[in-house]
């Protein structure tokens, strides 16, 4: 028996026993049942699996679960637990900044993490630069840009 | 805010194909051919089967379990020859995904290499007709006196263009879960066409249609890639062998290797020009249709008409060949091959304008098809917003035009699309006190056409707010037949069925009301539906029978029988052409800056002028234009499947196959043009595909305007542009 892996996921303590080569994406989706985090390319190119680890946007497909020691993880299922996440969700909803919705959890998590920059509220350009690793094939990003601007203003 | 699916999607609570799960399901994996053309000597599945918990299936298992396919030309696994690299030759399933992949790697293939036709030039050398042995489809049509027109014309403009293969790149990979059920199968899958998947499965496996129940999931983007069965047959075979639920999800690399999309093409296009009139056009299209089956390629005869463009040209000859190579079969990608054709035809229009000294927009206006015209193939043109769109583009261009700066240019692109595909369908609509319900087999693919468009059609028919209508997902057993969410047909074609059903409900309620003053309408009072007639109101429920109330409401079925245009067969020399139905105009302007040193093209802005007939869902239409333009920018600038001579795809991933990121999509000005009614409900035309059609054309013409150099090949990568700009 290997040592259990412990984490805080969306504020709740979690204990699991993933193999050493399991990706965080698969731990979240198949061990913890949190399938709001989307599986896209599994090669770090599309951003659909973005979650927050210690508040930082992280590609869950590129991280081995066991590499993270007692991490604090936030996924789309827990994004509304804090005001920044709620503002991002409200902004995406208000601007219809989604179509098929498959890239949406990744965008929402990435933007939530970027907005919580401890150095202060980033400019819209900086936020958009931070979202360049998130691909959307439906919207042409136009509505997403509008949502980023709205989220930056607090989601109203 | 208009999308009713925003909340569930933003909560991460909308299940897509890869999210499907069942107790004790097995994970499937495919064994892909490592070469593009080979004779199969043997497939040894035993090394895989020796891994605990693994089951495996190849051609022998298919023959044993499904001995009588209705369509034997499409075997699930190839029996004799592999015909493209990445073709699935066997499949395995195991209790974990990792074990399944290990088992797939353990399968031993004994393949005898055969000669590979890597690209269309190998079987269709420039200047000669393609090798008949590799010709899947040959189409040829002519109208007028083409020889005479060319012989007499003072100016002939003749060019050769090439276009690249494009992948759909839905972010959601293909995925399905198949469960044996009552002697048949429950197929839960991410698809643009549940009935299409059912019918494909019935054909390739030889199963009765009712024994297959196909249920859709939320679809994480389709763009044509999920319009037909792709992985479902493999999962059904595995589920049959295992007698257990099997989940199959493609890796993204597999999406590229065995997905079916647009392939490269070469076009020779020539025009006879007399003064400022185009009097003749000759087109020769050679389209790589990959491993498509002879006679079954739809694209050649459909797309070739787009090489004439939406213009009046009296003397025209069209000839096209779909050639067979060792690539995956050609498949549809948003307006299949139309944006490539528009790039060619519209680049050619600008060359004609340049050489005859006419403004590009004026040249197009002088030749624009209008209602009452007939096309090259003798089809009548219905209400068509091209002239209005071009006039608005001309006004916009005047506002944009900045003093001539080297490397800065503006281009126009035009296109048209046929947005009422012939395929028919039915819809069931139900009404009760608590609202209106559309029972629908089609699931939302993202465009909003199902949850937004169909709901808007029902609401508008009944005079209700959209919020009073909900869409209830059905499957191929519980919901009536519909062809699928493709071809920009959902609102226009399926919407007609919804409108008919909704109107039938309204008429039934009016009849049941009895004698009364005037037309019955509907309204909402305190969240309940009421029937209104003159000054009187009654709860809708009071007009229903107890049985109807118990069944969730009064239901009606509407039908769309499909419509097809007509072709003047006297103009056809050989082959199958496809008639266009609702002519839908699309015009775009692009403004670019070109860095002469690096060849980098930066698109500064795009203005899009689109003929919607009547806009049923304004926010949805705008979103389709923005998304279509962005996808078109990828076609224009970066997207290209790169094939080696041995049939190997060199860029099967998102790092090397580059779709636009946010940084590459400029502001998009959207202008919807109404008043040219289509055959859809209230005059609506489809909006899913037209927005991608003119984008690459407009960008290419802007690049030529900026640099004075015409580039005859898509995409306009920095490398290609830089090479074209190098001094000779």
Index terms:
heterodimer, A: 156 residues, alpha+beta, Ubiquitin-like (UB roll), DNA polymerase, domain 1, 2 domains, 13% strand, B: 728 residues, Aldehyde Oxidoreductase, domain 3, Aldehyde Oxidoreductase, domain 4, 3 domains, seven-stranded mixed beta sheet, six-stranded mixed beta sheet, 18 helices, 27% helix, 26% strand, globular
Please give a structural write-up.
The complex is a heterodimer of chains A (156) and B (728). With 156 residues, chain A is an alpha+beta fold. Chain A folds into two domains: 70 residues, Beta-grasp domain (Ubiquitin-like (UB roll)); 75 residues, DNA polymerase, domain 1 (Orthogonal Bundle), CATH 1.10.150.120. A five-stranded mixed sheet of chain A has the order 2-1-5-3-4, covered by helices on one side. The radius of gyration of chain A is 15 Å and the shape is globular. Chain B has three domains: 174 residues, Aldehyde oxidase/xanthine dehydrogenase, a/b hammerhead (Aldehyde Oxidoreductase, domain 3, Alpha-Beta Complex), CATH 3.90.1170; 314 residues, Aldehyde Oxidoreductase, domain 4, CATH 3.30.365.10; 136 residues, Aldehyde oxidase/xanthine dehydrogenase, molybdopterin binding domain (Aldehyde Oxidoreductase, domain 4, 2-Layer Sandwich). In chain B, the strands form six sheets. A seven-stranded mixed sheet of chain B has the order 3-5-1-12-9-10-11, sandwiched between helices. The N and C termini of chain B lie far apart (55 Å). The interface between A and B is large, with 52 and 56 residues.
């Amino acid at each position: 028996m290997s040592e259990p892996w412990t984490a805080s996921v969306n504020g709740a303590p979690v204990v699991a026993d993933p193999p050493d080569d399991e990706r965080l994406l698969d731990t979240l989706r198949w061990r913890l049942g949190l399938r709001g985090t989307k599986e896209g390319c599994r090669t770090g190119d599309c951003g659909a699996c973005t979650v927050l680890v210690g508040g930082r946007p992280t590609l869950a497909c590129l991280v081995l679960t066991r590499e993270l020691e007692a991490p604090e993880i936030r996924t789309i299922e827990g994004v509304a637990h804090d005001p920044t996440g709620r503002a991002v969700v409200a902004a995406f909803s208000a601007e219809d900044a989604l179509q098929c919705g498959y890239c949406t959890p990744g965008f929402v998590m990435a933007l939530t993490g970027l907005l919580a920059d401890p150095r202060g509220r980033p400019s819209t350009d900086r936020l958009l630069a931070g979202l360049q690793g998130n691909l959307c094939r439906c919207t042409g990003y136009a509505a997403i840009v509008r949502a980023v601007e709205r989220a930056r203003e607090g989601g109203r | 805010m208009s999308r009713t699916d925003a909340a569930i999607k933003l909560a991460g609570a909308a299940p897509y194909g890869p999210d499907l799960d069942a107790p004790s399901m097995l994970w499937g994996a495919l064994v892909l051919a490592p070469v593009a053309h080979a004779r199969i000597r043997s497939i040894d599945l035993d090394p895989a089967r020796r891994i605990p918990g693994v089951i495996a299936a190849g051609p022998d298992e298919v023959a044993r379990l499904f001995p009588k396919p209705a369509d034997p030309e499409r075997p699930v696994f190839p029996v004799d020859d592999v015909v493209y690299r990445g073709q699935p030759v066997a499949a395995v399933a195991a209790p974990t995904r990792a074990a399944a992949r290990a088992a797939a790697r353990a399968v031993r293939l004994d393949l005898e290499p055969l000669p590979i036709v890597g690209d269309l030039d190998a079987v269709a050398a420039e200047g000669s007709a393609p090798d008949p042995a590799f010709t899947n489809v040959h189409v040829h049509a002519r109208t007028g006196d083409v020889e005479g027109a060319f012989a007499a014309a003072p100016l002939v403009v003749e060019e050769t263009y090439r276009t690249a293969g494009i992948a759909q790149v839905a972010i959601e990979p293909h995925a399905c879960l198949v469960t044996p059920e009552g002697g048949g199968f429950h197929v839960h899958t991410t698809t643009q066409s549940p009935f299409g998947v059912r019918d494909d499965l019935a054909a390739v496996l030889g199963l009765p249609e009712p024994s297959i129940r196909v249920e859709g999931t939320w679809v994480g983007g389709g763009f044509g890639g999920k319009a037909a069965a792709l992985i479902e047959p493999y999962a059904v075979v595995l589920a049959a062998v295992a007698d257990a639920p099997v989940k199959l999800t493609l890796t993204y690399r597999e999406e590229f290797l065995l997905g079916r999309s647009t392939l490269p093409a070469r076009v020779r296009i020539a025009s006879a020009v007399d003064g400022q009139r185009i009097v003749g056009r000759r087109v020769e299209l050679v389209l790589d249709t990959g491993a498509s089956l002879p006679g079954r390629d739809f694209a050649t005869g459909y797309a070739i008409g787009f090489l004439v463009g939406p213009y009046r040209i009296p003397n025209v000859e069209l000839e096209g060949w779909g050639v067979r190579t060792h690539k995956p079969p050609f498949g549809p990608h948003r307006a299949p091959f139309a944006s490539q054709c528009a790039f060619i035809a519209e680049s050619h229009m600008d060359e004609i304008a340049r050489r005859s000294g006419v403004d590009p927009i004026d040249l197009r206006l002088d030749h624009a098809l209008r209602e009452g015209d007939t096309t090259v193939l003798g089809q009548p043109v219905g209400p068509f917003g091209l002239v209005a769109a071009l006039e608005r583009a001309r006004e916009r261009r005047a506002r944009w035009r900045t003093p001539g700066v080297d490397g800065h240019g503006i281009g126009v692109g035009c296109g048209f699309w046929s947005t009422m595909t012939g395929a028919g369908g039915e819809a069931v609509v139900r009404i009760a006190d608590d609202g209106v319900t559309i029972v629908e087999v089609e699931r939302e693919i993202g465009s909003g056409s199902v949850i937004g468009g169909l709901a808007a059609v029902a609401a508008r028919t009944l005079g209700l707010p959209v919020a009073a209508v909900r869409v209830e997902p059905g499957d191929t057993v519980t919901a009536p037949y519909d062809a699928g969410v493709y071809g920009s047909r959902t609102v226009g074609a399926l919407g007609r069925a919804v409108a008919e059903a909704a109107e039938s409900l309204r008429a039934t309620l009016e009849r049941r009301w009895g004698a009364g003053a005037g037309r019955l309408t509907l309204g909402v009072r305190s969240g309940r539906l009421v029937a209104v007639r003159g000054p009187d109101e009654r709860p809708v429920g009071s007009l229903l029978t107890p049985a109807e109330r118990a069944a969730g409401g009064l239901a009606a079925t509407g039908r769309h029988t499909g419509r097809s245009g007509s072709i003047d067969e006297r103009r056809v020399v050989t082959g199958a052409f496809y008639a266009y139905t609702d002519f839908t105009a699309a015009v775009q302007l692009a403004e670019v800056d070109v860095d002469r040193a690096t060849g980098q093209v930066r698109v500064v802005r795009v203005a899009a002028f689109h003929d919607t007939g009547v806009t049923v869902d304004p926010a949805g239409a705008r979103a389709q234009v923005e998304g279509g333009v962005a996808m078109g920018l990828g076609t224009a600038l970066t997207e290209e499947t790169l094939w080696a001579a041995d049939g190997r795809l060199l860029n099967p991933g998102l790092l090397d196959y580059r779709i636009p990121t946010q940084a590459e999509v400029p502001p998009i000005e959207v202008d919807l043009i109404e008043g040219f009614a289509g055959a859809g409900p209230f005059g609506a035309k489809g909006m899913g595909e037209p927005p991608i059609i003119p984008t690459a054309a407009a960008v290419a013409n802007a690049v030529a305007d900026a640099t004075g150099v015409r580039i005859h090949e898509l995409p306009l990568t920095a490398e290609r542009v830089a090479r074209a700009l190098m001094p000779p």
